[in-house]
Amino acid sequence: MKIICNQRKLSSSINTVQKAVTSKTTLPILKGILIETCGQQLKLVGTDLEIGIENYIDAEILSPGAIVLSSKILGDIIRKLPDADVEIEVDENNNTIIRCENSEFTLIGQDAVEYPELPTVEEEHAYKLPQDLLKNMIKQTVFATSLDETRPILSGVLMELQEESINMVALDGYRLALRRANIKNTVKQKSVIPSKTLNEINRILTEEENTDVEIFFTDKHVLFNMKQTRVISRLLEGEFINYNQIIPKEYKSRAKVKTKKLLDSIERASLLAKEGKNNLVKFSVKDEFMHITSNAEIGKVFESVSIELEGEDIDIGFNSKYFLDALKIIDSEEVYLEFTTSVSPCIVKPADHSNYTYLILPVRLVG
Predict the structure, then answer these.
(1) CA-to-CA distance for 88 and 85, rounded, in angstroms?
(2) 0.85 surpassed by pTM
């Protein structure tokens, strides 16, 4: 194999596929990146057998072929090379010479035949989503997935595609995040995608509004096609919780509050809450104010935020982290907080639309 390509494009491509490469593997070949000629393009592949990322870049193909090179070493070398053309030449013994201006490296590669093939996903029924919408939907749900390995289904995000809409749902037993959007579909689909996959896709996606991501499903895998990059991931097996049963349909108290003011107040209150066992902050919702307090052995804090209240007064406690996680990703200027009782879930919603719902369980207050 002998090819010539641009250093910046090659470095960017390596950086993209490296997201799927793991150093924690018993298969040495998986620590490498597959570099393979594909027509007039160069294809780079990284995989850990759970997720695989392919990236394509334009290159001058002088002779076709393929090689597997150490992901870390290759990435470090290409990143440090000058912004110029890079020539990669591989002989029959997998010795690989990398040349760029006055630099020349020789690496011992591995035979590409030994590199595992990524699963095949038939590209029949494509679901199309704008890049910026998918990026936003991932950002507003994936943080609420569970880290508990005893319930693997909750370590992913449910993607529910219907004829007129798409829902993405994540929950971990303490909170639930639901993001809705309206899109046209022809086929219904319901799958749970690992949070790791969605986090990597979020890093690859840009904010381009006019570019669609194509999504294809099989029973066990999902393929995200993004122009020059393709991500193939296994799906999580099992039955996802019926989230509609968890979300309260009514409330006894509803407070309307400025998102930024509430976020800032809880952040300040959490400075002391972190000293406690469960990051506890207490909300006292009454009339035109919500008082936010936190007590710790080293002291206490009192915050007051203006609200518009419908319904009853309420005292309720929360893990401040779970509240902050939601407020940081809500784009709206104001939010509604809906309460039923001091031991029932609170619902957080943007005040200007119904595309996002966040549910958080309270912490029982003592005394």
Answers:
(1) 10
(2) yes
